[in-house]
């Protein structure tokens, strides 16, 4: 592959990854994230009952106080196993809820706040940025090698031996 084609391919990968990471994934923010009120809540319990396909469904019940100072307990499914592992009963978390519908509440990484594929898209974006930068760097290196002239013997008459 020509050096400039490598640089171009690397740039395209980085641009697509940046779009995915900074525009596509955040653009899919839920109504809760955009319009919801924010408060502090605490984890009451977490559970992982088996789903219909045999895989566990990661659930967290959390309590928060709404704008009317009423305690609400809501249970949400967590899509990211790493987030679920970090939550322990009694731990604090940032809760978003709709003031006119306080039973509609969630937190980062849970149902209502994230799509099931948002973590996968972030991972794909980071991988594409790394690959794009590596491809562009290899193309730049090859281009620089083409720009330096190879050492040639001086032109002109040769001395007799």
Describe the 3D structure.
The chain is an alpha+beta fold. It has 2 domains: 3-25 and 118-145; 30-107, OB fold (Dihydrolipoamide Acetyltransferase, E2P) (Beta Barrel). Helix content is 41%, strand content 24%. Strand 4 (92-98) and strand 5 form a beta hairpin. Helix 1 (3-27) packs antiparallel against helix 4 (118-147). The protein is elongated.
SSE inventory with pairings:
Blueprint: H1 3-27, H2 31-35, E1 37-47, E2 59-65, E3 71-77, H3 81-86, E4 92-98, E5 101-107, H4 118-147
Helix pairs in contact: 1-4
User: What value does the Rg take, in angstroms?
Assistant: 27 Å
Low-confidence stretches: none
Residues in helices, as a percent range: 40-55%
Order of strands, widest sheet: 3-2-1-4-5
State the order of secondary-structure elements, H for helix, E for strand.
HHEEEHEEH
- Count of β-strands: 5
CATH class of the largest domain: Mainly Beta
Specify the oligomeric state: single chain
> How large is the count of helical segments?
4
């Amino acid at each position: 592959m020509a050096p400039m084609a490598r640089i171009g391919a690397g740039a395209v990968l980085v641009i697509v990854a940046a779009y995915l990471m900074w525009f596509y994934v955040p653009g899919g923010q839920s109504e809760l994230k955009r319009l919801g009120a924010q408060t502090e809540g605490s984890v009451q319990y977490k559970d992982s009952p088996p789903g219909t396909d045999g895989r566990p469904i990661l659930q967290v019940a959390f309590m928060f106080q709404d704008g009317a100072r009423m305690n609400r307990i809501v249970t949400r499914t967590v899509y990211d196993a790493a987030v679920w592992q970090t939550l322990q009963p009694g731990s604090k978390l940032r809760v978003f809820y709709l003031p006119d519908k306080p039973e509609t509440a969630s937190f980062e990484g849970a149902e209502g706040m994230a799509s099931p594929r948002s973590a996968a898209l972030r991972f794909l974006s980071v991988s594409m940025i790394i690959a794009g930068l590596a491809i562009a760097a290899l193309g730049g290196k090859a281009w620089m090698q083409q720009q330096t002239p190879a050492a040639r013997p001086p032109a002109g008459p040769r001395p007799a031996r």
